[in-house]
Amino acid sequence: MNSCREDVYQKVAALLQNIKNKRGASLALTGAGISTESGIPDFRSPGSGLWEQMDPMETLSAQVLRERPEEFYIRGFRLLTSMKDATPNLAHQILAKLEEAGYIQGVITQNIDNLHHLAGSRRVWEVHGNTREAYCLSCRWRGALSELEQQVAQGSIPPRCPLCGGNARPAVVLFGDPMPVAFNEALEAVKKADLLLVVGSSLSVYPVAYLPELVRHLVIINLTPTPQDYRAEVVLHEKASQALAKIYDRLEGKGL
Ligand code: APR
């Protein structure tokens, strides 16, 4: 049985190698599952997922931010700022190395934890925004989220734009927000890609969950089954860092 599993890692390595050799494009698509090994809970894992403890439509809702800012800045905002001490894990680091070695052209991430940037990934499409930045709803100001953190800590809710005094908000895509330009860019990149390597996503939230339907070669690394496993060439129901380390070893023949 074990030899069968070894073939599977080799199969993914060969797919990435062949696509690289013919100057094709491979991309990674990551979800919250890649960051659980960095101590950030995901949303839907039974027993530990955040959405078992709170209602996402209330906690990270654009409507609540608009109509009940006090509620948003007491719960949702605290969730957003709770990730800033996390550090990239081996899975983030391997994706950055795969990009550096030319096996993938970038990472499309649903995560807002900035860990792909910190791991050294260069081309990152943050299709659900990020927790580094904030912007003004009235003028063109865009700055650090810490600007809002300071105001909220002093009880100034909603936080104000430092330039025009208008309402400022986090640059995270909340439920009810339109998708950012980064999603359209990621969509165009996937349309031109040969392979999509999904890592740590339940593929249950659209429109991101459409992306795997657009590629010829789909590889899914996820602890639990996803609705798109049936269309994947390779499915690895195991930890992201373990699976990626085995794939990487076969590509470069060296440990990390
Ligand atoms: N290795 C591999 N997979 C893992 C690991 C791990 N170490 N830990 C958890 N997983 C898997 C879980 O089994 C789960 O299926 O990662 C998946 C994470 O799925 P979700 O919690 O649904 O997260 P995600 O797919 O990113 O959610 C998409 O939903 O709530 C919105 O905006 C939020 O961006 C998020 C979007």
Number of strands: 9
Please list the strands of the largest sheet in the order they lie side by side: 3-2-1-7-8-9
Q: What is the beta-strand fraction?
A: 15-25%
What does the largest sheet look like? Answer: 6 strands, parallel
Number of helices: 10
Query: Quick one: CATH superfamily of the largest domain?
Result: TPP-binding domain
Helix content, binned percent: 25-40%
Q: Could you tell me the CATH topology label of the largest domain.
A: Rossmann fold
* pLDDT averaged residue by residue: 94
Architecture of the largest domain in CATH? Answer: 3-Layer(aba) Sandwich
Structural class, from secondary structure content?
Answer: alpha/beta
The ligands found in this model are: adenosine-5-diphosphoribose
Q: Into how many domains do the coordinates divide?
A: 2
Order of helices and strands: HEHHHHHEHEEEHEHEEEH
CA-CA gap between termini: 26 Å
Low-pLDDT runs of 5+ residues are none
Shape: elongated
The top-level CATH class of the largest domain is: Alpha Beta
Radius of gyration from CA coordinates: 19 Å
Highlighted features:
single chain; 256 residues; alpha/beta; Rossmann fold; SIR2/SIRT2 'Small Domain'; 2 domains; three-stranded antiparallel β-sheet; 10 helices; 36% helix; 16% strand; binds adenosine-5-diphosphoribose
